[in-house]
Design a protein that fits this description.
Length: about 130
C-alpha cells in the first residue's frame, strides 16, 4: 500500500537506518567495515567497551541492514552493505528536495506579500 507517495513499511526501514546511524560507534563500525571485512573481535579491539557491547552495536546495524555478517571458521566477519548506505543517502536526498521546495514556496509567498513580481520557476519549462 502507498501512503503519501511512500510505501507502507518503507518508513520503518528508514527509521531503523537512521536509528542505527545515530550512534557514533555504529557509524564508525560502518566506516571501518566499508574498507575491509572485519571480525567482531577485531572491531572490539578498537573501542573502549566490552566485546558484548560491540556485538550489540553490530546487531543493531545488522537489523537495519547496514552490515552483513558471515562466518569464516569461528569468526563472524562484518561487512558494510553499500545498498543500505545508498538507501540512507536517497532518504536524505528526498528530504532535502522536499525542504528546498518548501523554502522556495515560502520565499515566493513572502515576495508576493511584499508586492514584488515573482517569476514562477516552472513556467516556460517543457
Amino acid at each position: 500500500m502507498v501512503v503519501d507517495g511512500v510505501l507502507e513499511g518503507a518508513e520503518e526501514g528508514v527509521d531503523r537506518l537512521f536509528h542505527a546511524l545515530a550512534d557514533t560507534t555504529r557509524r564508525d563500525i560502518v566506516r571501518r567495515c566499508t574498507r575491509d571485512d572485519l571480525s567482531v573481535s577485531r572491531l572490539a579491539e578498537a573501542y573502549p567497551m566490552s566485546f558484548a557491547a560491540v556485538q550489540k552495536h553490530v546487531a543493531v546495524l545488522e537489523r537495519a541492514g547496514l552490515v552483513v555478517k558471515r562466518r569464516r571458521g569461528r569468526e563472524q566477519l562484518v561487512r558494510t552493505d553499500p545498498d543500505a548506505v545508498r538507501r540512507a543517502r536517497q532518504a536524505l536526498d528526498e528530504l532535502e528536495t522536499a525542504w528546498r521546495g518548501r523554502v522556495e514556496r515560502m520565499s515566493r509567498l513572502l515576495d508576493e506579500d511584499a508586492g514584488l513580481e515573482v517569476p514562477n520557476p516552472t513556467e516556460g519549462q517543457d
